[in-house]
Fold Trk system potassium uptake protein TrkA.
Amino acid sequence: MKIIIAGAGAVGTHLAKLLSQEKQDIVLMDDDEDKLLTMDSNFDLMTVCRSATSINGLKDAGVAKADLFIAVTPDESRNMTACMLASSLGAKKTVARIDNYEYLEPHHQEFFKKLGVDSLIYPEMLAAKEIVSSIKMSWIRQWWEFCGGALVLIGVKMREGARILDIPLSELGKQEAPYHIVAIKRGNETIIPRGDDMIKLLDIVYFTTTPKNIPIIRKVAGKEEYSDVKNVMVMGGSRIAVRTTQFAPDYMRMKIIEKDPTRCTRLTELVNDKTMIINGDGRDVDLLVEEGLKNTEAFVALTDNSETNILACLAAKRNGVRKTVAEVENIDYIGMAESLDIGTVINKKLIAASHIYQMMLNADVTNVKCLTFASADVAEFTVKEGTAITRRKVKDLGLPKGMTIGGLLRNSEGIVVTGDTQIEPGDHVVVFCMSMMIKKIEKYFN
């Protein structure tokens, strides 16, 4: 597949690195030669130092033969223009990064397709949705819904009170528990577990289950004393913060701490009535305590500085906040953030990349997510008639090491998959695998 990425900024370079590992034909475009130099020498891709809105530049990049053209420069209008030009010059599919939420409204999508922009990616909105999912319950690190909410994936850190520590998963399976353990993050290692694996203290364990069985996971994880999240404090009045307040459920009360008075004035126009805007420096712990930090169940740090966000979450933890979320845009800091036990990490680049990544897949994939802490991906496949995945029971499929099936949706009902499950055409199947394996497991669904 020939893929052209316009924009060698944070999102573009991360996506180029990700896709180059898959041996795709990648072309990275940017008019800043300095940004391209390290990519050209360190990764298996071609660089073109031309503007994404230059017709001759697009031709030099080979846009006429492009299967996918991705415009992720910092300038929204430039991305839209680049996609329109690429489409008219022969690109089969185009994706533009945008900053305007209005463009995502359903009645606008057909209009943009006619102009040559097939898909729109708004990283800040995607990040906000992930934040809201992660703060729904104070005891859960990460929360994702699949199959329209019939199945959920939750990541939980194992503390001393967990009842499933040091027991082989094959033994836990004999108890016919209504959940499936699909991944374990242990230090810097990610494990797609087998029957002889055991859960250890401080592991982050990823479970799939149905919504009604979440209390059972809470019980076995020893998290029953954790309070529900009703009060949320947000540090930094960024666009992600605004979207977070808009996606948060009605029962949550939110406070945004923003040090720029002008931005505070603007925030009062953008957020709803349930959100309080406070002008102050979120690094001032005394101010946070004065504003009710000790009575807050969740603290979210969304400044443009990763180090500030990590330290702020540490300070919140020391003041008794159980649930903390940090925006960490420096990928190199993600491992450090986990080792400091700050809670959930949000990274726009990884979130946007996982959404774009699913557009490359040949199988019928409706959802792909990158597990930020774990080097793993999760994808939702629709099963077609006659595919390999339907020919045997799950335990007899010979699935590759590093892959597991977490659950499925059949006749609008979520089902936790076991070794004896027979997958049928029309099922929606949730698959977990180590990073960069999704292309390898497509053969089971094609």
